[in-house]
Amino acid sequence: MDHVTAEIVGYYQDRYEEGARLGKRPQGRLERIRTLELLREVLPAAPARVLDVGGGPGAYARPLVDAGHRVKLVDLVPAHVEQARAGQPPVEAVVGDARALPENDGDYDATLLLGPLYHLHRRDDRVRALREAIRVTRPGGPVVVAAIARFAGPVDFAATARFDERMVAEASRLRSSGENDPSIGFTQAYFHRVSELIGECRDAGLGTVTVHGVEGPAWAAAEAAVGGPAERAVFEAALQLARVCSSEPEVVAASAHLLAVGTA
User: Which of 64, 67, 228, 245 is most buried by a 10 A CB count?
Assistant: First the structure.
């Protein structure tokens, strides 16, 4: 395990509770609602065999099991695998690397790659992970790929009144590098431009790629409204706008997360 991978595993193993993330803040709640809605739209009818690569403690695997799908989860973090197995309903889960999946060719009706891509700094590693997801998916099956949008971090800091001179410098640096500064709070990560995500998916061999903006263009407004009299109304409006503008090319990049959907 190289030092970058070890840092990522340590972050999730010892310093951050991923299992609570999607319920804490408006951005996380929007991410969960919209990701589940999009998965229901693109996955085959249950019971489908689904591989959830980088699925963490099972935030998406568990609802899919509840819906009748046969799900296997692969994650780099041993604690996540233990949590996935221990929850209700339990999820079949193993420790593994997205770049070398312990699965046979074409074993799955659909594959989810909802976490690994933004923890891989090198383009060839990201394309390798995408190719692995395609390899284990039956021909014509959907492959669903998540990425963090290039300026999600600075926008989040602005919406929550944490934007300072350091974030000005970080936003400027992200324009060219895309690499997160771990000292700001998150771990090792890479943030995508939409065109870059599409290019990597296509270079890996993914067909008919469509990119969705997960949280929509008003997620930052929902964050800024927390604690105010319009908090609930702004959240509901942000959710509706996310649905309306899901794959609208002009606003997709305004989301915190991008979701590319293509066919193996």
Answer: 64
Contact status, residue 108 vs residue 51, Cβ threshold 8 Å: yes
Amino acid at 242: A
- pLDDT beyond 80 at 1: no
CA distance 34 to 39: 8
Tokens of 4: 């970058």
The domains of the chain are located at 3-263
**CA angle at 153 for the pair 149 and 159, rounded to the nearest 5°:** 115
Which tens digits make up the pLDDT trace of 69-96? 999 999 999 999 999 999 999 999 999 9
Handedness of CA 235, 239, 241, 245 (dihedral sign): positive
Backbone angles phi, psi at 163, to 5 degrees: -80, 120
The candidate with the shortest Cα–Cα distance to 262, out of 107, 147, 141, is 141
* Degrees to nearest 5, angle at CA 115 with 93 and 207: 100
Model confidence, pTM: 0.96
**Torsion from C-alpha of 76, 97, 262, 124, nearest 10 degrees:** 120
Rounded distance, CA 225 to CA 223, Å?
5
**Fold of the CATH domain 3-263:** Rossmann fold (3.40.50)
